[in-house]
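user: Kindly work through both lines:
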Amino acid sequence: MSTDRHGVRSGTEPDFPRTAADERSRPRLRVGVISAGRVGSVLGAALRRSGHELGAVAAVSDAALNRVAELLPGAPVRPPDEVAEQADLVLLAVPDDALDGLVRGLVRAGSLRSGQIVVHTSGAHGVEVLEPAASVGVMPVALHPAMTFTGRPEDLERLTAATVAVTARQDDEAGFSVGAALAVELGAEPVRIAEESRRLYHAALTHGANHLVTLINESAQLLRAAGVEAPDRVLAPMLSAALDNSLRYGDRAITGPVSRGDAGTVRGHLEVLGESEPEVLAGYVQLAKRTAARAESSGVLRSDDAVGVHEVLDGGW
């Protein structure tokens, strides 16, 4: 069994090594974190917990420095170029739009070298954004944990219930293996995502998680307008059941007036929203249309019952 310049063993190992013996036998890496945002600080702490050495971290704001003190105690704080220079594994945890410029800047500064592993955590990007770094001989890997981060210690435990999207160059099995092993060391489950599917993957998470927050907050807003003092108490059991049922049963979990073909009830909703909360109306209509379409195609809503609902949602109210 041989080891290549990236510390990756060749042979017939599975893409996603999981046993404790496998993990203990992996070489320890010196990790540099750029930067100590909510994601980078937590992942840096997770990698340190798994046995890797934390070399240095980039942090500028007071919030970032506080995260270093709490999650990465003792880690030297250095400029990004110095963090990258001394690392075997360079972890780039920066906003999506900043990633390309950062990678190019590190290459221009001569901070990256052949044999390093460069990992970014952007969900929107695959490894194409790392091509300038790959051109100098680094191994490019994209890792995206499918969870929200607070930048607090409890995120380390939440990682154990999360998945991590792993993307490497096409046919780069070593890259996929390294990414998968790092995901396991973070405590998460690796999920392989092809480069060409990365944007669709990220759109799915954004639509399902980020837009869900907006939807829940608008529901709470409507309940407060209706005189409910504790909307979270009203919503929590219903939302928990809806989420569980949707993940278990898909579109068969759809309930409510649209799924029953209650056009009169839907019309009443549109009228009251138009009068009291008009900024919510457009979102309600669009989601109701999608709900009706999915309910009808899955057999939850009968076609003859759907006619009245579609008429109301198309402006007949």
